[in-house]
Structures are given as C-alpha cells and as structure tokens.
C-alpha cells in the first residue's frame, strides 16, 4: 500500500514550498493504515514525510493520506458554504494534498478513536468576563431581607400558593405554616394543572414529602437553616438529581437517571429546600417543545410559554412551585419570564456553578432563579452562588443586597432609539418614566452598529461540539421538533462552520466586551426592552447579569412563538385582543446583581402588578 503521487501533485508541492522544513511536528492519523504504510516504508525512511537524517523535522502536508478523495470540484462546492472565493489554481493546490495536510486532524472523530471526550470535560480556553486593565468593583457581601411584617396566613390554599418566597419563609420560620402543608398544596396544584400546561416531566411526590417532613422536624427542633428551608421548588430538567430522571426534555435521554446531584441541587438540598418537580424545557434547551409536547403559557393557553426554561416559567406563573431554577444561553430565562409574567434573574457568568447541569455551550451557559418576585430571586441566588471544583468557570463573588435600601441618584442607562421601536411597548416607555419618578437619573447610551448576531457562531459551534455524538449517530433525529430552526438542523449545519470564523467571532466577542465595559462605566445599570435581540446576544456573550420583571400588561391579537413562521401552521388569532403580562429587563455590572435587585424591587413596588394571577389558576 505505497503512496502514489501524480505528477501534477508533485509539481504543485514543489511550487508551494511544501518541501520546506518546519520547526514543529504535524500529527498524522496512523492506525491500521499507518501500520501498513510503515511496514512498506523503505529502509532509512520514516513515515509522515520525516527523513531518517538526524535533526530533520517533518514538513506540513506529508502525513499518510486519510479520508475520501477530494478534487478541485469539491472545493468549488465547499466555497458556497464557507463564503470564500478561490482561483482554479488555488483549488487544484488545495485538493492535491488535502488528504495529507488537513484530513489527518480529524483523527479524533474519524478514527482510530484513541480517546473519548467525556461530557464533563470543558474546553481548555475559558471565557473570563473580567477584562484586563479594567478594575473590578469590589462590593460588600451583605444580604438584608424584607422584615417580617407579621402578615397573617391567608385562608385559602390558592392564596398561599401564590405568596412570594420571602413571605412563605417567614410563615414557615414562625411555624404558622408547615413545609408538609405547603408541599402538599403545590403537589396537588402540579397534578391538577399540568394537563393544561405540560410543564412537568417528573413529579417527585415521595421525595418531596420526605424532604418536607425532615424540614418540619428540624424547624420544630430549632434548627432553622435559612429562608429556603422547607420551600418547595422545581428544577428545569437539565439539573442532575440523584436517583431521579434528568431527561434534558429530549427523547434520547428520557430514561437517563443520574447517580449524583448537580452542585445547585446539592446547595438547595443543604438549604432545606424541597424538590417537588423536574420541569420541562425545550429539547436540549431550545424553545418550548419537548418529548411530552409543548409547554403552554398560563396567561394565554393558546401559545407556548417560551423557552427554553419553559416549565419553570409556566409553573412559577401558575403558582405550582415556590420558585424554580432555569438556565440561559441566549435568552432562555429572559424570554419565558417576560412572556409568563414572572421574575427571572440571569446571574453573571461564573457566579453559579453548572456542575451536573447539561452543557449546551461552555462559554455561555448560566443557571439562575425564576420566581414571582424580585426579592425571591435574590434569596435563591445567594444560596446557589459560589465556586465549585467541577466548573472551571466559577469564581468567588460577593452579593450586596438590602431590600430596604433606596435607589435615588442611581444612573440608569437606556438606548433612546430602542425605546421608540419594536419590540419596545408603552410598558417599556412607562418603565423609563418610572426611573425618574423613583429619583434615579436616566442616561442616554449608545453602542456601535456592529454585526452582533455573528457572535451566535460561538453558540452554534460549541453546541454542535457538545452534542456531536448525538448528531453523528443520528439519535438527534428522534427529537420531536425537526424544523429548520431546531437543533437537529443547526447541529448538522455546524459541522460546516469555519474554524477561522470561530476565532474571529471570539475576537469580536472581546471587542464587544470592551464596548460594554465602556457603557457600564457611564451608568450603574441599563433598562432595555427584554427581547431586543442585540442586547440579548451581547450580554449573554459578555456575561453581564440581567433581571427581567413584570412591568405591566399589553394586548396581543395573535399568539406568540419562539419558532420561525410556518405558513402551514398559522398561529391563533384573537378578536378582541387578549391581555397578557409584559416585562422589562435591567442589565447590571459584572457581579453586581445586588444593584439590579435593589432597583428591580423599587420598580416592582412602583408598577404594582406583580400580584395579579392568570385567570383559572
């Protein structure tokens, strides 16, 4: 099995300097093919083009050929995918030694596969939201809750179910309410309303009642663990729970049962919280369709709840859990919080460990709380924050929050043009007016007109890598959603993304982070329309925290969807229009969730709409 070179290839090699020496080695795929080549290599000559002469290094493009034959026509077609242009001579040269120069770098995937990259293995390169040369604001590590006003326990279970966590915790602490009682309230509501919402993947009844009984016993004995002790919660079903299925909402994983708890699950267990349900997510953390159907919005049952934290958004809005843990890579906390009228806190990248959580994108994934009020999300954030050895991106951080502190004098940045056009509404503009009413100072800010959506290449490439085996084995074909804008198609397309373009997108990411650092140096926080695409992409890439909260109501004449329009399946229309909640979003400085929490709490009180419930729940 000797190597054969055409005269054309040899001539091309000479002309392109392929015989020049290199100062480092080029790895080649040997395996069975390599062994055969080595066996037939003439005496005194080494494989991979390496001379037997001492001190002579290898040259590029001299590894044993691997992979299918390619031709100039192959490159001509590939140019359409890569959006580059080559001359006929360029294509001929590239085709001539592709199988010796570039194909060998695919050894890890094409074989022989000498190593498996386990799912817990993170890339060597890490995103650090702190930029060199920019001082990190050091905050106090202080947390002051709302004081106990001695509010009496409501007469109805439904009213108890919709109470905020900070109030539920006061009733439990004062033993006016037991954890078992509260847990049974939520379990009954989960069973009653899930047929309408499709938000529960696994109900953890026995597990929850055991945790609740243990909590009541400890509290009665004077061993109160803190504000989450005895509080029922729901986990987006990408958080591992020992002995309880964690399915990622995807058919290939529906029977997956992890042996260990995720870091966040463990911290909530240690805080005495009670897990009542594993909640739905769009399959593999995209939108709101999972193997059990589509999760619906309690405020408008004709539309999905948005995603991918679909179950947490629906369950919190319908009063089925005290709080939930969601995740965000590119809008998965913000969007369902906005649509379902709940409060979602997306923490700074690196604050909350993702150990034991499904990986979609190593440099973008974040875990955060979703609840019915601002203070509730801060209570949860304090519990789940902090480094974990299993997540190389986590760092130590402080949280400075005082529920009684004022907001006067704070500078709130906003983008004037964004407030004048869709997706901004009158609710967004009223929120901007409230800034001044509360004694804060509105400050106009601006960013360059750059192609921010090109940063999504990072998401597509990392996600394609995270689910490479699922894609190449065609198990991805089992997902319910098989439309052009769903993951199966995106993961397949990602195989054809350019590595050079990935690096350029990563460089752009740093430039965007520098621009955000400039903007945030001018203000204390930003007020933005929740679903403004640019700010969703930018802040998820730069790692800035966000707080989305209900600010009012709007009327819609058509159901909303996360999915691309499909003429064959038009969305329901409403006449007269339907009233639904609308949320605004605050963007904070890195690791300064306390400030957006303080402002969010002041705005929540000013808006006065957070206590309204969806009809029928």
Q: How would you portray this structure in words?
A:
The protein has 617 residues and is an alpha/beta fold. The chain contains 20 helices and 17 strands. Strands 2-4-3-9-11-10-16-17-15-13-14 form an 11-stranded mixed beta sheet, sandwiched between helices. Strand 5 and strand 6 form a beta hairpin. Helix 15 crosses helix 17 and helix 18 crosses helix 19. The N terminus is likely disordered.
List the helices and strands and how they pair.
Blueprint: H1 7-15, H2 31-39, H3 72-82, H4 88-101, H5 107-110, E1 142-144, H6 157-161, H7 165-173, H8 179-197, E2 200-203, H9 205-220, E3 232-236, H10 263-270, E4 274-279, E5 289-290, E6 293-294, E7 296-297, E8 300-304, H11 310-317, E9 323-328, H12 334-340, E10 343-346, E11 366-371, H13 374-384, E12 400-402, E13 411-414, H14 426-437, E14 441-444, H15 456-466, H16 468-472, H17 487-494, H18 499-522, E15 525-529, H19 533-542, E16 546-558, E17 573-588, H20 593-607
Parallel strand pairs: 1-12, 3-4, 3-9, 13-14, 13-15
Antiparallel strand pairs: 2-4, 5-6, 7-8, 9-11, 10-11, 10-16, 15-17, 16-17
Helix pairs in contact: 1-4, 3-4, 8-9, 11-12, 13-20, 15-17, 15-18, 18-19
**Order of strands side by side in the largest beta sheet?**
2-4-3-9-11-10-16-17-15-13-14
Quaternary status: single chain
Helix content: 25-40%
> N-to-C terminal Cα separation, in Å?
73 Å
Strand content: 5-15%
Put simply, the count of helices is 20
């Amino acid at each position: 099995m000797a190597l054969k070179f055409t005269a054309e290839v040899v001539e091309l090699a000479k002309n392109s300097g392929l015989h020049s020496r290199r100062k480092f080695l080029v790895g080649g795929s040997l395996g069975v093919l390599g062994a055969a080549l080595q066996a037939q290599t003439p005496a005194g000559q080494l494989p991979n083009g390496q001379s037997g002469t001492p001190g002579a290094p290898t040259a590029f493009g001299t590894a044993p050929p691997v992979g299918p034959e390619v031709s100039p026509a192959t490159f001509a077609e590939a140019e359409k995918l890569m959006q580059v242009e080559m001359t006929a001579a360029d294509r001929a040269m590239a085709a001539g030694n592709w199988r010796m120069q570039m194909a060998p770098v695919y050894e890890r995937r094409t074989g022989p596969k000498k190593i498996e990259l386990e799912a817990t293995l993170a890339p060597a390169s890490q995103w650090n939201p702190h930029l060199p040369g920019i001082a990190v604001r050091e905050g106090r590590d202080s947390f002051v809750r709302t004081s106990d006003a001695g509010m009496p326990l409501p007469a109805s279970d439904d009213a108890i179910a919709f109470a905020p966590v900070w109030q539920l915790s006061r009733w439990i602490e004062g033993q006016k309410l037991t954890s078992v009682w509260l847990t049974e309230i939520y379990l009954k509501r989960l069973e009653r309303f899930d047929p309408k919402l499709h938000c529960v993947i696994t109900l953890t009844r026995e597990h929850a009642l055991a945790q609740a009984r243990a909590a009541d016993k400890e509290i009665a004995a004077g061993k109160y663990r803190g504000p989450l002790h005895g509080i029922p919660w729901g986990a987006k079903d990408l958080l591992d729970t020992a002995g309880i299925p964690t399915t990622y909402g995807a058919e290939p994983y529906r029977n997956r049962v992890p042996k260990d708890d995720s870091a966040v699950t463990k911290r909530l267990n240690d805080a005495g919280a009670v897990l009542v349900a594993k909640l739905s997510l769009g399959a593999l953390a995209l939108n709101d369709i999972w193997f059990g159907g589509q999760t619906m919005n309690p405020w408008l049952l004709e539309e999905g709840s948005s995603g991918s934290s679909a179950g947490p958004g629906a369950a919190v809005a319908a009063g089925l859990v005290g709080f939930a843990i969601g995740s965000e890579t590119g809008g998965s906390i913000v969007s369902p919080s906005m649509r379902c009228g709940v409060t979602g806190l997306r923490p700074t990248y690196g604050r909350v460990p993702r150990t034991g959580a499904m990986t979609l994108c190593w440099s973008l994934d974040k875990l955060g709380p979703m609840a019915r009020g601002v203070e509730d999300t801060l209570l949860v954030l304090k519990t789940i924050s902090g480094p974990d050895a299993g997540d190389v991106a986590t760092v130590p951080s402080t949280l400075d929050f005082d529920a009684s502190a004022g907001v006067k004098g704070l500078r709130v940045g906003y983008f004037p043009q964004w407030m004048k056009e869709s997706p901004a509404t009158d609710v967004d503009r009223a929120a901007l007016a409230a800034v001044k009413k509360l004694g804060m100072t509105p400050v106009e800010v601006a960013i360059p007109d750059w192609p921010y959506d090109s940063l999504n290449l990072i998401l597509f490439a990392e996600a394609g890598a995270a689910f490479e085996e699922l894609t190449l084995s065609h198990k991805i074909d089992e997902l319910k959603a098989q439309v052009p804008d769903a993951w199966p198609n995106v993961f397949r397309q990602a195989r054809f993304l350019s590595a050079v373009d990935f690096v350029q997108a990563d460089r752009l990411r740093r430039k965007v982070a520098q621009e955000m650092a400039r903007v945030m140096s001018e203000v204390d926080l930003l007020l933005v329309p929740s679903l403004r695409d640019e700010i969703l992409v930018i802040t998820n890439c730069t790692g800035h925290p966000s707080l989305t909260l209900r600010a009012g109501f709007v009327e819609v004449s058509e159901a909303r969807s996360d999915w691309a329009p499909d003429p064959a399946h038009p969305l329901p229309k409403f006449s007269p229009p339907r009233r639904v909640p609308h949320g605004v979003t605050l963007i904070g400085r890195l690791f300064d969730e306390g400030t957006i929490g303080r402002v969010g709490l002041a705005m929540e009180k000013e808006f006065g709409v957070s206590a309204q419930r969806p009809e029928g729940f």
